[in-house]
């Protein structure tokens, strides 16, 4: 069990970009007066200062998270095996491929080892580049081997510094998005400060470095910034083309680095669809965004050797369905209010039917079942019937896949972020509803439009997109805690934009009959500055204390296990155990595994369920037969799983196995009526008694306070 212990003393005011330009004063001889020149210089100065602040905040964030990581683990002082153990669960698995590429005799041999891998899943040869999103590890390893830095920088530091460097890109992208929305870089400054002070809820990069989301989210933030810029009005054709190229590159990199890309972009496509239906976005630009999503995902599909899970994604089916339905319904945006509503309902039903039919057809043709566990999980999570499915229950019982805890909102409110966010969200939603109704009403509601124009603002396309984006990703975060990082970072952008928005303050002041342009200008800058001062005063001392707190990585049992495996087992030995531990075994020792944490494969899920019978109530003969069918030489049993207390009854791993096997669970409590007692005791407990029926198949070869390793007999 890993713990973090206290470290022992030992070794050593600006112009908005969106504002319409003032009329130029021209002298009789045709020369422009100096006022316009002064305005341009002020704009250049403002952009320069804002850019410097953005880059500075990005770099400071990188240094901040890197320092936290070092202080928490004393990473520079611990042994290599301890550094690798600190990359827990799937983090260790992904990093192992980077290590494998670094240690390969050549780049070609390293790539060959990934394409024809027979050490990640025993008695099976799989293509790692097809199954997993590890191109970033491949690129980084090639870059490390090519650059003359081997003597100065260890491979692990090159890896983690790259991830911490991406945090700079992330913060700069959030800063720029807020700046584009509000027209002032003060908004970007506030967004970045909120991101840093709410670090617990906005990122987890300092302790889960190799996770796919830490690679992907910076590119997703860049994509959102580029989309925000694309949706501005009066862009020149060259600007539009360059922005579309930036969106494509960011979308491609986001898709390449995270296996859940298709689900995130499906939500994004849904946001575009909603806004397009209500005439809030230019249809031509929305079409380009659909095409970019499709082309980016298909390019990733090619690079991943035509990964079937991508081809069968709902995103491709949905985007294709929208484009087909739009072709069929050419007059969708014409007619009266009732006529438009009828067409809209028909359009939604048409898209839904096409999506399901296309997706069903593709999955039938390709015989796809890779993502079925996700839909089983969603079905059970939202109450569409109870399930005994082991994979679905495994997700349901993990806290990360549960509802967002309520204490998240209290933490976010301490920095005023959540309070301001809710206030801005409410105002923007009201405006969006009014604008949507006006757009659907058409020319028949001219008087209503004129009346409302006096009290409301026009919702710009970029603001409309970010509004729907934050609402949809907010719903995702509320339902699944692990996805909160997609929402909370954008929450910083949206709240800071609202606080620095001329339109929002104009609306508020008009509603209370206090509007003047001077008063709007003063409030627009004074309230964000006061908020920044409050955040600095309240949280700066805490950040300094956090940076001064020194701890040390401490996990002697796992270190002892890894060292024993390297010293006492052959390089070709096959190990069985929990998914999380085996990822570390592969990274630290290079031994062959029976299963691993990358769960997006039906055969692997079935294999994992079989391997986990070591924690179920099964006979030694059954367990031995199952393990040997996967070529297992050694099995590792963990007391923390066998005697688990982290989860409540019904969610312990042994309970999930009992339910899936039709057996009554251990301990006091109710059982479903059709569950029956097992004929055998729990394997992981009974094997420690060294009974003859067990010792004939299993010999204990290693033991410490946490782990028990048994060698399997090789019967003829």
UniProtKB/TrEMBL annotation:
Residues 21-30 have a biased composition (Basic and acidic residues). Keywords: Glycosyltransferase, Membrane, Transferase, Transmembrane, Transmembrane helix. Belongs to the dpy-19 family. Pfam families: Dpy19 (PF10034). GO terms for molecular function: mannosyltransferase activity. Residues 1-30 are annotated as: Disordered. GO terms for cellular component: nuclear inner membrane. The keyword Iron does not apply. It is a multi-pass membrane protein. This is D19L3 mannosyltransferase. It comes from Cepphus grylle (Black guillemot). It is found in: Membrane. Residues 1-10 have a biased composition (Basic residues). InterPro entries: Dpy-19/Dpy-19-like, Dpy19L3.
